[in-house]
Amino acid sequence: MTSGHVTPTGSRRKARPRLDLRRLGRAALLGPGTRDRLPDAIGHVVDAHRAHHPDADIEPLRRAYLLAESSHRGQMRKSGEPYITHPLAVTLILAELGAETTTLTASLLHDTVEDTEVTLDQVREQFGEEVRYLVDGVTKLEKVDYGAAAEPETFRKMLVATGNDVRVMSIKLADRLHNMRTLGVMRPEKQERIAKVTRDVLIPLAERLGVQALKTELEDLVFAILHPGEYEHTRELIVRNAARADDPLAEVADEVRKVLREADLTAEVLIRPRHFVSVHRVSRKRGRLRGADFGRLLVLVNEDADCYGVLGELHTCMTPVVSEFKDFIAVPKFNLYQSLHTAVAREDGQVVEVLIRTHQMHKVAEAGVVALGNPYAAPPEEQSASDGERVDPTRPGWLSRLLDWQRAAPDPDTFWSTLREDLAQDREITVFRPDGGTLGLPEGATCVDAAYAQYGEDAHACIGARVNGRLATLSTVLKDGDTVQLLMGQDPASEPSREWLKHAHTPAARIAIQRWLATHPVPDTASATEPAAQRPADDPAAPQAPPAPDTAPDRPTAAQVLADRPGASVRLARCCTPVPPDEVTGFVVRGGAVTVHRAECAAVARMKNSGRAEVGVRWGEGAECRVTLVAESFVRPHLLADLTEAMALEGAEIVSATVEPPTQQQVRHTYTVQLPDAAGLPALMRAMRNVAGVYDVSRAQPPAPGA
């Protein structure tokens, strides 16, 4: 229920018959006139509306006003004003922001279903399904409990109530702004409660939806209620600055106009005063304020290219503060905001901030999604589906994603905490998929976030990623412009790791992981990801490597190699485990035996330097071989069992196995295996790579000299 008005009693509602809307409309006309006459009370609303939409049909507004005025007749706000002044004020706020006719019609009617005998069916009959949907959404929002104890549940109810249409939220924000303007008639404790909810819930929403005009005024109104002392101090600073004889902002504005005029650039240069909260923040950051700190310059041009032309002229003809430059045109903010930010320094050391944008960018910067009109309208043809999120967050949009989160969240507190984190984000990055598509993620997002953004709950099976072509852990923080290839496991039993929560920054990722963990409790979560080599030997759950064969690890395999030294025994060096078709060489060692090394083995150079006799060797045919392989993988349950099974199916006999402790969810396995035929080595390595979680298999490299 909207604060500040008297609601008819329930008994009175039951006693009244169903209203005839046409009769009410005629009765609402004040004095003589025709049905087509525009009531004077909405003249200012129509003027504001036509300033943005010159060809708009105002007939729905006329009929909506007549119905609202008749329905609310006799109701008064706590301020003593007729209640109809409230929907009129809310509608005027939206009209000045550029809202389309349907939104304004619903705004005029937004309290009729809640506070009068008008029904949703009657609204549909007179104004259509779209207006009925918006009025219904706002009516449901009015019923949300904003009490402190219900705070975590507040957003869930709001999102269910609004559905996928941000126009419902736009009406609610304008409704709250007018109520905050007239909050002085409330008790102090109620003022404080409403102000806190506005601060914690509605101001972040206004920021997320890009409605800066509403956000800044709401911030100032909340500031005055919750921090009256600091508000009064800030007001005095602004008053004293306004009384100054000199105005550095005006002087720099004149200089900017001169520079642009000489460069033949058409632009409008305005002084944009800071609002109270902004002045307060600047004073806390910089200490003593100077004249240039109380506002910024706004330069408005017609075309995008002119923005950069203005920037070039200012940086050429004035003294730029390079550290203050930001390009939100090339990289827009998540809430549609686009502008160039820079600053120039005066000779007296004062720094003047300058915002450069087109007139259309300025409209969107002020009104956000309100300026976009109907979110269900087809997007422009030149806008691809992949970049629709950045151009307009209502298609399919941030609000739609929130609806998914609230349905998936295991409990209200989880949803609330993740949502507050998301609302705190003020920058987005764009990363590219290998197929050319894009993912929009908050700054600081990791590969975990990218996985859930692309695959939803199927990301539970993600085992790793490649970032810009290089293998990366799921904890890797992504940068704007990175290319991300997500590696997905084939095991249907794949499951997310509890460790992922440390690296998940988006609500979609955190809620999906928490939901899975809540439905799959594990008594000892550490054992689920602990490599088998680290578990106690008597742990029956630990998959064991096959026992080593009876043959000694260094048994000779002379049948594989032919040496140019008749009668000498031949053995393969364990340091480099050569196999066909490696290039090999031999050396005579103690006892007259010939040891065979790979040609690139570090031991070869040492033996040559020590004067050992080199013996020519070559591979025989169809010989068995022993080789050491290194498998690198991501940690997952049952990996060791799956890997050794794949090796056994290829006929490999495991001589020894070592599993190193995991680091950053990665683990390294080293296996020495005996193969009946060296020709089977490529197939063995392929089979090992095909095991879910394994991302690389290679031959063990000989140690470097001196290692």
Automatic annotation (TrEMBL):
Keywords: Transferase. It holds the Pfam family ACT_4. Its EC number is 2.7.6.5. GO terms for cellular component: plasma membrane. GO terms for biological process: guanosine tetraphosphate metabolic process. GO terms for molecular function: GTP diphosphokinase activity. The keyword Metal-binding does not apply. InterPro entries: ACT-like_dom_sf, ACT_dom, Beta-grasp_dom_sf, HD/PDEase_dom, HD_domain, NT_sf, RelA_SpoT, TGS. It comes from the Bacteria. Residues 531-542 have a biased composition (Low complexity). Residues 628-702 form the ACT domain. Residues 83-180 form the HD domain. PROSITE patterns: ACT (PS51671), HD (PS51831), TGS (PS51880). Residues 523-559 are annotated as: Disordered. The keyword Transferase applies. Residues 427-488 form the TGS domain. Pathway: Purine metabolism. Belongs to the RelA/SpoT family. PANTHER family: GTP PYROPHOSPHOKINASE, GUANOSINE-3',5'-BIS DIPHOSPHATE 3'-PYROPHOSPHOHYDROLASE. This is GTP pyrophosphokinase.
